[in-house]
């Protein structure tokens, strides 16, 4: 049961300035964290104190009644949802902003008219359309941004939005904020580093002179050493929120994006402000004029719009394909200054580090010196010849029966809660008692019928043990995990181990315990390697052909937790993550049906009783990383350094 202090924090919507967003509205030009300190005296940076994970499953009706009052729900949520939410609220004892969201906005409601289960380009096409439609503001957050086929949709969307609004008075032009994470030595002293407009073009963004109709500001955010900004979401006009599994880069990953509307968008907005942390120049328009945020479409309208968008995206599906991209892209910064969308944009090389500053790590250093510029062009052309083709194999979206755009059945607002985690830079596994982790573990431990998890990596000790315990209780636990995903990174110290190693160990534990007890516990673990819609077997992630990056957890086909967090050590103990917990059996069933429809994991991906996948002839498919080893650990360390530097890595 929430303490009196937490109860007061969670019900502060009944008071004035009970959230950071409301308080900032009184002084929109202030530094956001300074406002947060005033609303919540304990600083967000110190609220990530290491505490042991606390989970309990003994609840009285009176306790659940109190929990219900701690959210602005449209009706009484299920007992399962309330029990999970109760444990989530308990984490606020460590700090009111442990959830990277004001407590009074955590428990809310909303509708989800559409989901996308596809590769990055389909999701980025959707983002582009939403950006173009913006009237007042766009807040876009991603972990990894690189010049790519995926990022060109954002590039062109910003230019189209700018062109549409160029004739508006300066104070009426849309404001756009972009935040991402590219490690910089400067972030040891200051986590948030603004990216200078002179470096935008090198990042694959439009040059400043191309964006005369909007106000763009770009932020690079990382909390050293381990506190990665892993969040991926977008908020449009304080009316629409998109929560996605994908970064903005070229990868062959299957991804999941959900579109949300309703009161829950306020929680996304509050989270976005806290993530930005610094002064906004200029502020978001809806802070200056809160009435703008009331321009919301009704629930019925958003479902009709989702159907229209689906038909448009299918009709224009050729836009998602790069054709024959010219990866040299040497003249982008100089040539396209006309304010026109690029007719045939192409992936460009990942920016190479030039020094220890944010701009140096995040983008190519540009110059107006013609001699130096000519030298740079020659070097870039040489790199382009040596560079392998971009990882943009889009054949998956053409697979027979593949349906990327899912319009959900029309529904009234359902209970939704934010279950995030704040970044924690200190190495180790101590910072575990956070809303995201508590939601996952409580749900698994309270499951009565089923647990379904799809994730790139599965190795955090707490979630592994929770699933094993559920299997011991007779709960059917389905795991779809990517074979070989990030193996070199997962073999590093304190990172949990490879997926192959974890699967083998789980199968071994359940088999041995089952033999001792006379029960077949192993049958309760339905472990599968991700198998793409157009494949008859799993493919090792190192081949960069068919990977899955979806982050999804469903308990008893009732409560669904989805968003940014992986089931690995990095997401459990360090990275900033954004997730929603949705209480709706109808939506749960629709997501499960759509996920299974768009992959062959259930039928062609199950591993054997020993955790190893074999085909009909007994041939094994194993990951390149396998069970680890000193040589692979050394390779992982080198790739970890490369990834922080922006050179690629895992």
UniProtKB/TrEMBL annotation:
InterPro entries: PLD-like_dom, PLipase_D/transphosphatidylase
Pfam name, any one: PLDc_2
Region Disordered, residue ranges: 318-393
Ranges of compositional bias, category Pro residues: 342-352
CDD domains, A to Z: PLDc_SF (cd00138)
GO biological process, one term: cardiolipin biosynthetic process
Basic and acidic residues bias (residue ranges): 365-390
GO molecular function: phosphatidyltransferase activity
Domain PLD phosphodiesterase, residue spans: 225-252
Coiled coil feature spans: none
The protein, known as: PLD phosphodiesterase domain-containing protein
Organism: Phanerochaete carnosa (strain HHB-10118-sp)
Lineage, broadest ranks: Eukaryota, Fungi, Dikarya, Basidiomycota, Agaricomycotina
């Amino acid at each position: 049961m929430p303490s009196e202090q937490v109860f007061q924090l969670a019900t502060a919507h009944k008071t004035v300035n009970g959230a950071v967003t409301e308080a900032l509205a009184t002084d929109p030009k202030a530094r956001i964290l300074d406002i947060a300190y005033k609303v919540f005296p304990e600083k967000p940076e110190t609220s990530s104190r290491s505490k042991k994970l606390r989970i309990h499953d003994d609840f009285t009706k009176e306790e659940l009644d109190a929990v219900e009052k701690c959210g602005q729900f449209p009706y009484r949520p299920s007992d399962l949802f309330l029990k999970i939410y109760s444990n989530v609220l308990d984490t606020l004892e460590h700090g009111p902003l442990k959830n990277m969201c004001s407590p009074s906005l955590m428990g809310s409601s909303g509708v989800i008219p559409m989901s996308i289960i596809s590769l990055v380009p389909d999701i980025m096409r959707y983002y582009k359309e939403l950006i173009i439609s913006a009237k007042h503001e766009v807040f876009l957050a991603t972990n990894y941004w690189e010049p790519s086929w995926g990022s060109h949709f954002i590039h062109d969307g910003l230019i189209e939005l700018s062109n549409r609004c160029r004739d508006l008075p300066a104070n009426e032009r849309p404001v756009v904020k972009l935040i991402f994470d590219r490690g910089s030595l400067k972030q040891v002293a200051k986590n948030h580093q603004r990216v200078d407009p002179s470096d935008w073009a090198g990042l694959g963004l439009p040059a400043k002179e191309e964006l005369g109709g909007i106000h763009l500001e770009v932020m690079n955010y990382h909390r050293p050493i381990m506190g990665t900004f892993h969040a991926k979401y977008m908020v449009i006009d304080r009316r629409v929120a998109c929560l996605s599994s994908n970064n903005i880069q070229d990868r062959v990953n299957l991804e999941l994006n959900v579109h949300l509307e309703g009161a829950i968008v306020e929680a996304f907005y509050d989270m976005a402000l806290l993530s930005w942390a610094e002064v906004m120049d200029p502020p978001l328009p809806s802070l200056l004029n809160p009435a703008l945020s009331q321009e919301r479409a009704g629930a019925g309208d958003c479902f009709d719009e989702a159907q229209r968008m689906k038909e448009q995206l299918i009709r224009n599906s050729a836009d998602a394909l790069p054709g024959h991209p010219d990866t040299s892209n040497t003249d982008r910064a100089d040539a396209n200054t006309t304010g026109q969308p690029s007719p045939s944009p192409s992936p460009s090389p990942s920016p190479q580090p030039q020094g220890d500053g944010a701009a140096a790590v995040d983008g190519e250093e540009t110059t107006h010196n013609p001699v130096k510029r000519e030298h740079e062009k020659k070097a870039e052309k040489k790199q382009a010849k040596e560079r392998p083709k971009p990882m943009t194999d889009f054949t998956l979206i053409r697979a027979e029966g593949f349906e990327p755009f899912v319009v959900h059945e029309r529904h009234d607002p359902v209970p939704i809660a934010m279950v995030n985690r704040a970044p924690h830079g200190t190495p180790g596994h101590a910072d575990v008692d956070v809303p995201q982790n508590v939601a996952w573990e409580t749900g698994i431990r309270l499951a009565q019928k089923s647990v379904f998890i799809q994730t790139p990596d599965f190795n955090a000790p707490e979630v592994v043990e929770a699933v094993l315990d559920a299997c011991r209780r007779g709960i059917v636990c389905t795991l779809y995990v990517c074979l070989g995903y990030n193996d070199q990174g997962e073999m590093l110290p304190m990172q949990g181990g490879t997926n192959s190693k974890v699967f083998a160990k789980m199968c071994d534990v359940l088999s041995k315990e089952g033999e001792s007890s006379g029960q077949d516990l192993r049958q309760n673990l339905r472990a599968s390697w991700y198998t793409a819609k157009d494949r008859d077997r799993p493919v090792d992630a190192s081949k960069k052909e068919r990977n899955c990056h979806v982050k999804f957890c469903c308990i008893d086909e009732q409560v669904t937790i989805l968003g940014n967090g992986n089931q690995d050590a990095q997401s459990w103990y360090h990275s900033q993550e954004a997730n929603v917990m949705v209480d709706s059996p109808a939506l749960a069933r629709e997501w499960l049906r759509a996920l299974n429809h768009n992959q062959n994991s259930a039928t062609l991906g199950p591993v054997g009783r020993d955790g190893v996948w074999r085909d009909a002839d007994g041939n094994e498919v194993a990951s390149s990383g396998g069970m680890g080893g000193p040589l692979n650990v050394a390779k992982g360390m080198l790739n970890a350094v490369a990834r922080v530097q922006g050179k690629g890595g895992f």
